[in-house]
Amino acid sequence: MLDVTPSRTLPAAPGVGYKSRHFAGLTEAPGPVRWIEVHAENYMGAGGRPLAQLRALSERFPVSVHGVGLSIGGERALDRDHLARLRHLMDWLDPASFSEHLAWSTHDTGFLNDLLPLPYTEATLTRVAAHIDQVQTTLGRRMLLENPSTYLAFEESDMDEVGFLAELARRTGCGLLLDVNNVFVSATNQNWDPRAYIDAFPLDAVGEIHLGGHDEDEDEHGAPLLIDSHGRAVVNPVWTLYAHTIARGGPRPTLIEWDTDVPDWPTLRAEAERAATILETVEA
Amino acid sequence: MTDQRSFGSALLDPEMPPPPGLTDPQGRPAGRRFDIYRNNVAASLTEALATGFPVIAKLLGEDFFKAMAGIFLRAHPPGDPRLQLWGGKFPGFLARFEPVAHLPYLPDMARLELGLRQSYHAADTARLPIAHRDPAEVLAIKPRLAPATLILASRFPILTIWRKNMGHPDLTIDWTPETVLITRPDFDPVPQLLPEGGTTLARHLKGRLTLAQAVTATQTLEPDADAAALLTLFLSAGALTLDTTLSEGT
Fold this sequence. Notes:
The complex is a heterodimer of chains A (284) and B (250).
Chain A: E1 14-17, H1 23-28, E2 35-39, H2 49-58, E3 63-66, H3 80-93, E4 97-101, E5 104-107, E6 110-116, H4 122-139, E7 144-146, E8 153-154, H5 161-172, E9 175-179, H6 180-190, H7 194-200, E10 206-212, E11 214-218, E12 224-228, H8 236-249, E13 254-257, H9 265-280
Parallel strand pairs in A: 1-2, 1-13, 2-3, 3-4, 4-7, 7-9, 9-10, 10-13
Antiparallel strand pairs in A: 5-6, 11-12
Chain B: H1 4-12, E1 22-23, H2 32-52, H3 54-60, H4 62-75, H5 90-96, H6 106-121, H7 135-139, E2 144-145, E3 150-154, H8 158-164, E4 178-183, E5 190-193, H9 198-206, H10 211-221, H11 227-236, E6 240-241
Antiparallel strand pairs in B: 2-6, 3-4, 4-5
Helix pairs in contact in B: 2-4, 3-4, 5-6, 9-10
């Protein structure tokens, strides 16, 4: 009998960040889209449409669960209740992948709903590695950690971001989620060379790639300041950097993220088609 | 060293300077660069509040809502990352917020919008198995209110105001109290007017009585209510369930 169950791993093909308005397009005309990603926190209700839709989609597509609220870089202990909710969702869905961000988002008064930056020091490394261990132990699976978009630097940082992420992966055994748009945004904002960043990156540890759009601004000195907005198409320099990444590291599951000013399905699918075209140029 | 407590406090207070130790690539203090994070926090939480309370946002207008949201989100940021459940303190905030004192129905409107959201995310349950059954059998059932069923009593015509702002602008408002029954027959919560006695019937149904006992008790306490009609309303709206444990889901 033909096995129609979605694979337990993400295919090295395009995926999209799932939006309910794309349910019909995704199920009726997926084009090259072979998997979907959802934000964990949106599926932490008790029931209703979100979970029913996710269950239905998971029968068609491998699903990546992407957390945005775990505050894995936080100075305070991880929120055990949130971790338990995450465990519950993972047990219920058994997704193909789980990923979170190298960032923090908690304050004395509550949840700040942004991905806030960290100094790259040994102290941060020790703390984040312990949190990753805790997450991987609680969930009983390997996680992927995503490189951030950053807008400022910490005087106290004494490691570069790639070295920091590589060491985290080495210490914890976690995989990495390489957001190529974040590389371009951070490199512009921090005066790094984005291609050198990719060339130094431990691509063997990369389990997934993200592509998304950003906004352009400038700081008070007139320096360019790019803002990770996920609100428009991927720009050409990011596509070029992506092609360079997979030429060097091989094809990877590649997500198109478009979270604000969400376009119609054909527009989003066209971005996935562009990723598919680039993926096809590279031997697995 | 820049600790996260001072980083977070400065994010929430636009009057505070950015914490020391944060720079641009040239080592100059991060002024506008810090403001990007400030803006992300305020804008994303304001948007979440507007998404969760669309009628409040519409009644107050974009600029006013945004300014007010800025005050609310700093006083009562989400307790955890489930933004779909954020806003439990919004009705109380509105009741104390002087600039909206002339709109005394706003707290109840916030409760209604919160209730619709809670119903949307509530656990799934099976409806009462009443089709093709003998009425006497049905009346012997001991149901409970489904988790997606909520009741909101207001001193204001809260449902009419809600409907007027949700695509029915021609409705005329008669300033009398309204009680709203929210149920979720399928996946979309449906608010409707709950006639007199409905709250009493719901209270009895929560007390693990049979349908017959609950109807009788309601009729005794509220002789003017039509308890049989109320029961029909509860049954047709899918307000009741037999489930004692919640179904699959998170």
